[in-house]
Every structure is written in structure tokens, then in C-alpha cells.
Amino acid sequence: MTTVSHFWELILGTIIALLPLINPLAAAPTFLAITEGLTPERRNQQLRMACIYMVTILVSFLIGGTFIMGFFGISIPGLRIAGGLLVAGIGSGMLVAPPRDPAQQSRENEAARAKRDIAFSPLAMPMLSGPGAIAVTLGFTSLATDWTDYVAIILGILVVAAIIYSTLRVSSRIVQVIGITGMNALTKVMGFLILCIGIQFVVNGVLGIATDPVLLRSIRDTLGQP
Q1: What one-character DSSP code corresponds to residue 126?
Q2: Residue 175: its pLDDT value, please?
Q3: Residue 32 near residue 176, CB atoms below 8 Å
Q4: For residue 47, how far is the Cα from the chain centroid?
Q5: Cα 90 vs. chain centroid, distance in angstroms?
Q6: Which pairs from 107-115 meet CB under 8 Å and 24+ separation?
Q7: Total domains, the chain
Q8: DSSP string computed for 67-87
Q9: Helix axes 147-169, 24-34, angle to 10 degrees
């Protein structure tokens, strides 16, 4: 029962951590802007490929996370703290950032539309699987102890991809219903959730260092305690 519970906790944890970070509702206006002029079939095809690319990118970092950490000598607490700081920075930026300059946004959208294939860039990277999503995925590497844990996290990523695809397919209706003011409010709420997730990552990393047996043994030896 405990194993099954842990399996579902990893799936739900992955969804809860990634979904506010990617925030498909807030991304809907940008998605519509950079796909302006495309036929509905072409738009859906680009979105479908972008979701496939997103899953491929995140799963690659999940599976290769252990190798990356070993190659660069990164400890699990260090990874959690670094990822937490990055995610918290993104969340705080969403909370306090001023509205984007419409002229700059228009120039960026024009540059994106000029590309013949926008599925990988800018849709998949960095819109759907940017540095924050990658950092969160690497952080989940520290929670995986066997292959079933990796399966659970990958299933969570697939569920997130399905939600993103379903949401952005009806992005035009979402923008009409929620409006710009609603999008801004939603961004603030998502930013607060992301900030909390990032801070929790940092707390877990600090606790991992503070409870490290090697560190505790060194402290006891320094103090001369048995």
C-alpha cells in the first residue's frame, strides 16, 4: 500500500509542480499571437509537436539527471537548493513584474511567426519546457529510487502535456472568457504558488544538509562527543 501511495504521490507532485510553472492559461495569448495566420490544422499540428518536444526534453533531463549530477559532482541537497532558488526567482518575478511592453511583445511575436516551424522554438523551448521546468524535473531526480518512481514522474509529465495540449487547443475561447485582467490576476496567483514550491525546494535542500550523517559525525568529532 505504501509503494502504491508513493507512486501516486509522485504523479500528483509532478503535476502540481510543473503545471503552475508552465501555466498554459497565461500562455494562451502568447500562443495565439505567435501562431497568428496559421490554419487551425497547422496550429494544432505545431502544438502537438511542441508537447511531444516538451515531454522529450523533460524526460531526457529526468533520466540523465543522475549522470549530470555525478559528472559535475552535484549533491542532491545542492540540486534542490539551486533549483529552488531558480524556481522561486521565477515565481517572484511573476508576482512583481510590471506589464510587458506591447511593442516589445509584438516584435518578439513577429520574430516567432517568421520561423517556418515554431514547434520546438519558441513553443517547446522555452515556453513549455524552460529553465524552471527543467530545474523542477532535475529536482524530482532526487526523489526517484527505483524504476517505478521514474515511471510515476514520466506519467505526471505526460498528464501535464495532455492538459497543456487540451488547454491551448481552445486558447482563443479562454482569452475571450478570461480577458487580459483575468490573465494578469491568474499570473499573480500562479507566481505565488511557484514561489512557495521554490522555497520548499530550498527548505528540503537545507534540511538534507543539516541531517547529513557525515556532517553530524564531523560535528560530534569536533565537539569531542562519542
Answers
A1: I
A2: 76
A3: no
A4: 17
A5: 10
A6: 109/30, 109/33, 109/34, 109/36, 112/33, 112/34, 113/34, 113/35, 113/36, 113/37
A7: 1
A8: HHHHHHT--HHHHHHHHHHHH
A9: 60
Give the C-alpha separation, 39 to 93, whole Å: 34
Instruction: Tell me which DSSP letter residue 123 carries.
Output: I
Q: Residues, the chain, total?
A: 226
What cell does 99 get?
Answer: 506589464
pLDDT digits (tens, 9 = 90+) for 149-196: 999 999 999 999 999 999 999 888 877 777 777 777 777 877 787 788
CB 128 within 8 A of CB 22: yes
pTM here is 0.74
The three cell numbers of residue 17 are 509542480
Q: HEC states along 130-183? A: CHHHHHHHHHHHCCCCCHHHHHHHHHHHHHHHHHHHHHHHCHHHHHHHHHHHHH
Domain that holds residue 158: 2-223
Cα–Cα distance measured from residue 106 to residue 29, given in angstroms and rounded to the nearest whole number: 12
DSSP code per residue over 174-220: HHHHHHHHHHHHHHHHHHHHHHHHHHHHHHHHHHHHHT-HHHHHHHH
